Amino acid sequence: MPFAESPQREFAAATEWAAGRTLDALTGAEGAAPPTPAPAAPEPQALLAGVRVLGPDVFAPALLTGAPTPPETTEIVAEAFRVFPSDESGIHTWRDRATAELLTRAGYPVSAPTPPPPPDPGEDGWQHWSVRMAQLSCLALPTLDGPVHQRAREHPLALARGAARAVLRRDHRTSARLVRWLAWLHRTGTPSTLELPPLLRQLALTGDGTARSALDLTVAAHLAAG
Amino acid sequence: MNPAVLGDAHRLATRALEWLHTAHEQGHGALPPDGGADLSDPDNAYKPIGECALAASLVLRETVSGPTERERARVLLDFGWQQLRQGELLYERQFRHMLLSDPLETYLHFHRSGYRHPALDELLSGLDGLRATHAVETMPNRRLAIANARHVIGLGSRPDWDALAAATWLGARPEPWAIDWTTGYSVTHTVFHLTDWGALPERLPAPLREYLAAWLPVWADIWRETGQWDLLGELLIVDACLPEPVCDPQNWEQLVAAQRADGLLPRDLDPVDEDPERAFKDNEHTAVVGVLAGTLTLARALR
Questions:
Q1: For B177, which of A125, A157, A168 is closest by C-beta distance?
Q2: This prediction's pTM
Q3: Staple partner for A180: which of A142, A220, B178, B242, CB 3.0–4.6 Å?
Q4: CB-based contact B89:B117 (threshold 8 Å)
């Protein structure tokens, strides 16, 4: 079923759809399952694009609740990786690397290019760094760890400042993504300078209405409760 | 400390003080000719005299300004003291309205710089002994302003600074993402008065110092981005009241870049009014803020 008239909008809509399905699986909504072909699903190529954008988050329900990822979902992620190969540049290759790691664990070995060094707040300040870390928030999942996570551990205050700044700028998506990192730090033993429960409540009340932000917030809530 | 910041601080303060001085030479900042002790709108005449005196008194308190700046500061104080009829206006206003605090708070700046009105000293000392003056229902950050004025003037009361600090918004160490523009000014004034404008940084409780070290950079960033130069300048004064700088040097660069060639520092991104009297009224407070931010930042660096 086509969602939109242009491929770009169709892919964006498919990403929302896939995020919504993942969110349902995470929250245990009735009949929920991670993204799989279904009567209401986007066109096959758009579905692959949406799953590709969602990246490691397709596996978030399994990593956070222990519910197994359906094999057909894993197959779609692997297929998405073949159809849309990882490019060789930019910090988003860290997302591809995380997806590749989770696919390999699930029995679908794929390779991803070596990412650039993880961003560092010393380069151009905590403001820009926190925004880049927000773009990598899908790495904030249980069992994932690596150089980006190490950077987060080294700079919890910069992440907290970034989260507070994003809330004050009414940038809901960045707020949700950074609170997810703070929750991951909490879960892995690094205390947050920001209290998480009031911030999670506030962001839930002032949501931007997208499934992607709701997914970030729900993952954050699971991590914070863990 | 970052030498570029010190250069920016010096430039900002010197030019803002020059602008204030020039504006007074041109006749701005005087009380209306018929002004008496019962000024119906003190914000428009009486308050700016106090604010200019504040800036000038701290230029003289610190030892970081050159002889030209110290002379300009003295000229501004002399002008204000003359406008207040050598303190007589403050005395009359305090005599008639014993629960008002603005005569005390205005007198503070002149008293700090050596001006005296003996009858006002005696009156303030008597009022300081009343439960009635201490029990006036006032915003918590304003209570700190009054307590600090009594302290600097040397009145007898001994406030519980920690309790006064704890009653403010800042004292609650609230969620830093919940601040708004007005509350930003409450925070800055809490720190100004609690530390007596940076002279007593230890009077700011350690948990509040740590809280500000974490979140002041965020607030400065937010109001820098929105071009709220007046509030950004106040936040940089707060930075100067902390033991070590915490804000990004870019804040200073942008504040200096916003200052016009004649030294006027606009309060925000709105166009500056072409009428000189209006421009003075709109931006006089921000000039005072610029003088204080620069002077106190230099003073902290040399302490």
A1: A168
A2: 0.95
A3: A220
A4: no
